[in-house]
From TrEMBL:
Name of protein: Flavin-nucleotide-binding protein
Organism superkingdom: Eukaryota
Source organism (scientific name): Exophiala bonariae
Phylogenetic lineage: Eukaryota, Fungi, Dikarya, Ascomycota, Pezizomycotina
One Pfam family named in its UniProt record: Pyridox_ox_2
Length: 272
């Protein structure tokens, strides 16, 4: 079996706290967290004069226009969807016009899988999966790549949705929508999927152990029953039903695996 591709560790992407146990750099794991998150938080510097950084919730997905068949375990770009005259689009345009590689951005995604309840409030925690990507955003100007990116993002929202919408995209929609391609420079992930981890002193306190409930509360993000619009004329299509089932099955499978690990793993004292 070949070695998995990893993002190189650099100063800005190396996981420091508990990095040995929780930090991950594997492309497939990181890209899966990004693609499994419905919202990505994209941060950037508005200008040298702004006191605070800007952060936007955006829809995005990992993909490759140059290599459409690439898997999540291969190098990919991150495509982001936005309005043509939004601030991030204007700043990206200015950066490219100034001869820079693009607008430096950080893309973050987080998924909470469970709540960890311990004896001490200090030892409470979450089970979670998080990922960050660092790269340079560029405007997608090629029409074929733009429509490719729009299709990828539409199908991230609901699998196979693109071909089940009104096509082709009209000129007004194309002109008002701007796609960003973020060429990834580095990335990292962080995962906790273990049981409560109280300090030895608390575990030795019989009164605390006997009177305080400790454990794990699974948290799952699921898609509910489809609700038709007021003007809808047809039954729920198969691609929507399939997407809901597959999404919920994946969530349940991961949650069940977390529960199993929590039950089977030994406590690492103080590893909150």
């Amino acid at each position: 079996m070949g070695r998995s591709l990893e993002y190189p560790k650099r100063g800005h992407n190396t996981v420091n706290r508990l990095g040995k146990n929780r930090g991950v750099y594997d492309l497939e794991i990181i890209h899966s967290i990004i693609n499994g998150s419905l919202v990505l938080n994209v941060s950037f510097a508005p200008s040298p004069d702004d006191e605070f950084p800007a952060i936007l919730p955006m829809i995005g997905t990992m993909a490759s226009f140059e290599n459409p068949s690439a898997g999540l375990d291969e190098p990919l770009d991150c495509y982001l969807h936005g309005y043509v005259s939004s601030r991030i689009m204007n700043l990206t345009r200015q950066a490219q016009e100034a001869g820079k590689p693009g607008l430096p951005v950080c893309i973050a995604a987080s998924k909470v899988d469970g709540l960890i309840l311990a004896i001490s409030s200090f030892s409470h925690s979450y089970n979670y999966r998080s990922a960050v990507l660092f790269g340079y955003a560029q405007l997608v100007t090629d029409l074929d790549e733009k429509q490719y990116a729009m299709e990828q993002i539409t199908n991230k929202v609901v699998s196979d949705r693109w071909r089940n919408t009104r096509l082709p995209i009209n000129k007004a929609e194309l002109s008002s929508t701007q796609m960003l391609r973020v060429q990834i420079n580095s990335g990292s992930g962080k995962i906790r999927d273990g049981p409560p981890a109280d300090d030895k002193a608390d575990l030795a306190d019989k009164n605390a152990v006997d009177t305080i409930w400790t454990g794990y509360l699974p948290v799952t993000e699921t898609i509910g029953e489809p609700v038709a619009s007021s003007y809808n004329q047809i039954a729920v299509p198969q691609h929507v039903a399939d997407h809901r089932k597959n999404f919920n099955d994946r969530v349940r499978e991961y949650s069940d695996a977390c529960v199993t690990r929590v039950k089977e793993m030994k406590v690492t004292y103080g590893d909150v």
